[in-house]
């Protein structure tokens, strides 16, 4: 068997962390043959819930978990980790406006950047889930300059999976038969789920989705808003925010990155822009990517020059620029 991979989850005792740690123990993160040393990192206020979660994980006797432990000390919790799943974040409290949340999380992620840089494995792969995920990731990149920019990502895979579900329901086919929807931009209500390059298997034939979904009104006024507002719809239905679907998407994100994407498969990840598609460096923007040998590559040359796409890409870009301004301005 291979050497265990060290994985740290922040917010490990929360909603998402609870679902995620069991999926990791079941092999969803790195495949069924890769043992894992799992650390759940929490804030001291959550110590009791943390202890209980670790007890349950140990009681599950999951063969892939080489070890499981909890920690409330950041230096210790990130020690040597190869993969950091940054789920914990400060939620929006009563009377807090968006700018307050951006500033509060800006400060948290700035400090976390230092702990990760000083303690994690030098090639640590990071995915930020805690909101505002893209901007939190950009803050890590800014304040942990020794970590390679290409190792810092944010989660938009849940948005991608939600899009696949909407398309498969519309076409009345299984979700596994739809692929290559692209999520552009921010994990927020301004994201742009783009079906222009999506493919579906219909009657055994791989078919471009735009050939079978031609109703522009449905795309603009039902599909896109449904995906953009799905998080709120889940809260309304369940009384709690998405947890298991978010955890499942985290596993998909890391699995694609670590193991690789299938031939012909394009996934979406928010990554530190290298200037592709005119998106400024320093922003964490969701792009279409393929992955191989533990590296992602932005898929180049997709056509987004039409006014429908440009309007939406500019809106999400504008939001990311303003989020970063607000979050970072008071930190420097
Ligand atoms: P919970 O409030 O259930 O859990 C968060 C946990 O993080 C708590 O146990 C808390 O003690 C811990 N925590 C807070 N700050 C921490 C810190 N600095 N270090 C370590 N632990 C810390 O929230 P949950 O439902 O699990 O959601 C977690 C985050 O994911 C939220 O910010 C949420 O907005 C975000 N989401 C992001 C999604 C995405 O697709 N990117 C989708 C789902 C989710 O809404």
TrEMBL record:
<dbReference type="InterPro" id="IPR001236">
    <property type="entry name" value="Lactate/malate_DH_N"/>
</dbReference>
<feature type="binding site">
    <location>
        <begin position="11"/>
        <end position="17"/>
    </location>
    <ligand>
        <name>NAD(+)</name>
    </ligand>
</feature>
<feature type="binding site">
    <location>
        <position position="131"/>
    </location>
    <ligand>
        <name>substrate</name>
    </ligand>
</feature>
<feature type="binding site">
    <location>
        <position position="162"/>
    </location>
    <ligand>
        <name>substrate</name>
    </ligand>
</feature>
<dbReference type="InterPro" id="IPR036291">
    <property type="entry name" value="NAD(P)-bd_dom_sf"/>
</dbReference>
<feature type="domain" description="Lactate/malate dehydrogenase N-terminal">
    <location>
        <begin position="5"/>
        <end position="152"/>
    </location>
</feature>
<feature type="binding site">
    <location>
        <position position="98"/>
    </location>
    <ligand>
        <name>substrate</name>
    </ligand>
</feature>
<dbReference type="Pfam" id="PF02866">
    <property type="entry name" value="Ldh_1_C"/>
</dbReference>
<dbReference type="Pfam" id="PF00056">
    <property type="entry name" value="Ldh_1_N"/>
</dbReference>
<dbReference type="InterPro" id="IPR022383">
    <property type="entry name" value="Lactate/malate_DH_C"/>
</dbReference>
<dbReference type="InterPro" id="IPR001557">
    <property type="entry name" value="L-lactate/malate_DH"/>
</dbReference>
<keyword id="KW-0816">Tricarboxylic acid cycle</keyword>
<feature type="binding site">
    <location>
        <begin position="129"/>
        <end position="131"/>
    </location>
    <ligand>
        <name>NAD(+)</name>
    </ligand>
</feature>
<dbReference type="InterPro" id="IPR010945">
    <property type="entry name" value="Malate_DH_type2"/>
</dbReference>
<feature type="binding site">
    <location>
        <position position="105"/>
    </location>
    <ligand>
        <name>NAD(+)</name>
    </ligand>
</feature>
<protein>
    <recommendedName>
        <fullName>Malate dehydrogenase</fullName>
        <ecNumber>1.1.1.37</ecNumber>
    </recommendedName>
</protein>
<dbReference type="GO" id="GO:0006108">
    <property type="term" value="P:malate metabolic process"/>
</dbReference>
<keyword id="KW-0560">Oxidoreductase</keyword>
<feature type="binding site">
    <location>
        <position position="92"/>
    </location>
    <ligand>
        <name>substrate</name>
    </ligand>
</feature>
<dbReference type="InterPro" id="IPR015955">
    <property type="entry name" value="Lactate_DH/Glyco_Ohase_4_C"/>
</dbReference>
<dbReference type="GO" id="GO:0030060">
    <property type="term" value="F:L-malate dehydrogenase (NAD+) activity"/>
</dbReference>
<feature type="domain" description="Lactate/malate dehydrogenase C-terminal">
    <location>
        <begin position="156"/>
        <end position="326"/>
    </location>
</feature>
<comment type="similarity">
    <text>Belongs to the LDH/MDH superfamily. MDH type 2 family.</text>
</comment>
<feature type="active site" description="Proton acceptor">
    <location>
        <position position="187"/>
    </location>
</feature>
<dbReference type="InterPro" id="IPR001252">
    <property type="entry name" value="Malate_DH_AS"/>
</dbReference>
<keyword id="KW-0520">NAD</keyword>
<dbReference type="GO" id="GO:0006099">
    <property type="term" value="P:tricarboxylic acid cycle"/>
</dbReference>
């Amino acid at each position: 068997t291979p050497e265990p991979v060290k994985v740290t989850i922040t917010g490990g005792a929360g909603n998402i962390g609870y679902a995620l740690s069991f999926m990791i123990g079941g092999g969803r993160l790195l495949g069924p043959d890769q043992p894992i040393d799992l650390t759940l990192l929490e804030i001291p206020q959550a110590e009791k819930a943390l202890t209980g979660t670790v007890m349950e994980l140990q009681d599950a006797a999951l063969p892939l978990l080489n070890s499981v432990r909890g920690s409330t000390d950041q230096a210790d919790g990130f020690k040597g980790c190869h993969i950091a799943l940054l789920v914990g974040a400060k939620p929006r409290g009563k009377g807090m406006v968006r700018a307050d949340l951006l500033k509060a999380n800006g400060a948290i992620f700035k400090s976390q950047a230092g702990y990760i840089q000083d303690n994690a494995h030098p090639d640590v792969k990071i995915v930020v889930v805690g909101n505002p995920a893209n901007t939190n990731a950009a803050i890590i990149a800014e304040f942990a300059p020794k970590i390679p920019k290409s190792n810092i990502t944010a989660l938009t895979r849940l948005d991608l999976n939600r899009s696949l579900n909407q398309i498969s329901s519309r076409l009345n086919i299984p979700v596994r038969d739809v692929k290559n929807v692209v999520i552009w931009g921010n994990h927020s209500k301004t994201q742009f789920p783009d079906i222009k390059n999506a493919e579906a298997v219909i009657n055994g034939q791989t078919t471009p989705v735009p050939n079978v979904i031609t109703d522009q009104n449905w795309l603009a006024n039902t599909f896109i808003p449904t995906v953009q507002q799905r998080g709120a719809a889940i809260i309304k239905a369940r009384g709690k925010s998405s947890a298991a679907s978010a955890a499942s998407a985290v596993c998909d994100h890391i699995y694609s990155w670590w193991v690789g994407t299938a031939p012909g498969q394009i996934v979406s990840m928010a990554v530190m822009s290298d200037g592709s598609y005119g998106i400024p460096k320093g922003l964490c923007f969701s792009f279409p990517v393929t992955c191989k040998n533990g590296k992602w590559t932005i898929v180049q040359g997709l056509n987004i020059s039409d006014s429908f796409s440009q309007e939406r890409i500019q809106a999400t870009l504008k939001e990311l620029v303003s989020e970063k301004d607000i979050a970072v301005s008071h930190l420097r």
